[in-house]
Each structure stands twice: as C-alpha cells, then as structure tokens.
# Entry
Amino acid sequence: MAALSLEIVCFFVQLILSKYGDNPFQVLSVRVLLVEDEKRLAENIAGALRETGLAVDCALEGETGSYLAEQGIYDAVVLDLMLPIRSGQSILRGLRQKGLRTPVLILTAQEGKESIIELLNAGADDYLSKPFDLGELLARVKALIRRGKGVSHPVLKLADVEVNTLQQTVFRRGQLIDLSPTEYRILEYLIHRPRVIVSKQELLEHLYDFDWEHDSNVIEAHISNLRRKLNLAETEPLIETLRHRGYRLNGGSAA
# Structure
C-alpha cells in the first residue's frame, strides 16, 4: 500500500485532536465530510454547517476526499462532482461498492435530467445544482443526517404502499396516488421512519421553509390531504395523529 501523504497524516492528527481533545473517551458529535475544491465556497459551506452545531472536515481534492470518506466515520458527505485528481462520481461509486451507506449530497453544475438520474442510480441520496441557496443546503444535509437511511434503493415498500424515490411516484395496492410535491415529501420522510412519532416541527424543518410559524396549520392541511388520498376503499388507515405529539406511519417496517 502506498504511503499516506503528509496532508492525510496531518489531517488525521487534527481530526483526533478536534474530536477527542484531552478526553479520548468523549462522545463524538455529528460529523460531516465536505469535499469541495473551490476554497472560498468550501469555507462558506463549512462555516455555515459548523454554526448549526455540526463538526465538519474538509478535503479540497478527490484523492484525499475519497480516502477520508471510506473511513466510515461520517454521518453525511457533501461531495462536489468536479474535483481534481478524482471525480466526485468516482468517489461515490467507490463508497457504494465498498458497502458504505453514508448519506451523500452531490453538488453539481450539471442540470441535465439524464446526468441527475445517473447520479441517483449510482447511490447519491440527494443533489443540489450550482449555484444554490446555502440555507437549502443546510436543510438538506440535516434531513439526510436525520434520515440516516444510507441505502440508496429507489423503491420503498410499507404494507401495501410503494414509493419510488427516483420517479417520485406512490402506489397503493397497485393504484397510482396523485400527490402534490409537498405531500410526496412528507410521505417519503415518514416512510423512512415507520411507527416512529414525527413531530410537526420536524416536518416543518424537513420541508426547508424557515419562515413558517410554529403554530402554523400548513402541516395539518397537508397531512389531511395525504391521509384522504391514501385511504382507498377497504384499506387500513396509514397515518395516525397523536395529539400534541405528532404523526406516525403504521404498517410495519419499510423494505
């Protein structure tokens, strides 16, 4: 095996010190890896992530980024597509081939539908097209960390409901359910957490709109419409409302 570069050795020394300090048994914080070759952009993204309480490690080129990502110590990876030495797509494929399920958010200047589908099929969990809103990036990274699903299988099944996360389609008992974009995002979020109580505030944060008031009835309206559309004749109700606590999707575990 080739000797590690001085940059990587120094990085891991700093990583150990930043993580453990004087106490090697300290509980680790949530940690994100950012692989971005535009230094100013990387500094802006890293600073914003750190302000939300996340620990952030940065790599400015693909080889170092790949090595760090493959250590399996990160809760999420923000990965630029166009990198020197090794491309972001190559890093992504390498992670998935090694069986690493770390959620990956791709940053890309490519907006073509085919290229985006190719990235998702390669194992990306989400993507943002450059230029992007920094607030949206923060919300998407937080959502990926909360989701923690890692696995990039495009079809999720719960009881008799089937959600295709690539095509963003929903079927129940083989019948296509016509959902609005917001209703779809709520259902996809819930189906990753079967039988887990999800609060209204958590759903509000997942929908990336920081301007909604905490007592807004927007979520209730979307949940009501979603429940009505999913409740076909002779089917069991899927979405349960727990007063003052949130919502729960029933039906076992998603496959």
Q: What stands out?
A: Residues 6-20 form the longest helix (15 residues). The chain has two domains: 15-147, 155-249. The two ends are 39 Å apart (CA to CA).
